[in-house]
Amino acid sequence: MASSVQNNRVSPPGYCVCCRTCNMWCWRAFKWLPVLLIVSIITWSYYAYVIQLCIFTIESTVQQCVYLVLYHILLIMFGWSYWRTIFAEVKLIPDKYKLPESELEKLLAAESEDAQRTILENFAKDLPIVTRTMSGSVRYCNRCVLVKPDRAHHCSICSRCVLKMDHHCPWVNNCVCFHNYKFFMLFLGYALMYCLFIMATCLPYFIRFWKMYQEYKHAHCDRLIEKGSVSKICMDMINGDFGTAASAGRYHIVFAFFVALMFAISLGSLFGYHCYLVANNRTTLDVLVSYRRLGSPTGQIINTMLKTLVNEAFRAPMFRGGADKNGFSIGAFNNFKEVFGNSPNLWMVPVFTSFGDGIVYPVPSLDEESESLISSERWDRWGERARPFDERESSSFDEL
To answer: What keywords were assigned to this record (predicted)?
Structure first.
């Protein structure tokens, strides 16, 4: 620990300010590439579905209107949630968690880990934190020079500590954390519904095009066209539905079906996984430790591979009484309301309604010393806000 509190990152000789600035802007531009890819796919899917399927392929006006209305509702909610996830303001950790210069000098001058632990304990004694490191000391970030609040972690991509960090998602170019976790869940949910809707409505036309193609192949039209001699059956098919200008978009429709299927599979697994996390009030960083506890040969291999990678960041929350992966769980429905708020009318809308401030969290059971800390300090931080297990019908919309 004596070496971990020091940050000796020094630029190599000859590394000029211009190079550093250029690299910074190139890195920032590079991080937007996954987002641009997603936007491009959505834009193409709009063309394939609205233009090629609804306008050029579907003949029934009523069916066109129904499909277009439902599609645009899903698209608006999907895009709104995605926008809020990307551009949600991830607030900084309060200054009171940051070590003053005097305390930092003492920490760097300490000659032993016990001395450093004592300095951090004295500084954090008035802070509302209950989690500790594996060694039982206060969680400290040497890069940000601050004591980490409960469930906060340092993001190497964002270069700062993030409140209730779940993971850094390249597809939204942002950290998924306390400030946008509800938006991220809605983004996954609406994206999954968007893909399933496209799959369900494109499936009949996919089957239709496949049968047409089988008839075309069965008549050996492709071979006859290569030889320059086309039969009457082939000419009728080419001049009919299979060869009309409107059916030229069938390739877009078929491709849209397969792309939606591919994304639905990945989104379904990811959305289900995060539903599990919400129900148990856990984060991805809390769960990854479970792989390190596997006793099978595969688990031992994974344990060896992950030991150095997740030694500090990826582990279950550590309390004074030991590690507890469900240490913040207050019941499935209360856990849900902690993320989505107390008003059912706003659960499906991408507006911020989560409880708390991202710093203090209710804990289901603690010892007497910690319980007094909860009652006297931690609940005061929640103030008059409706608590996730408060059954009142109040709304937290006024907290926005």
So the answer is: Acyltransferase, Membrane, Transferase, Transmembrane, Transmembrane helix
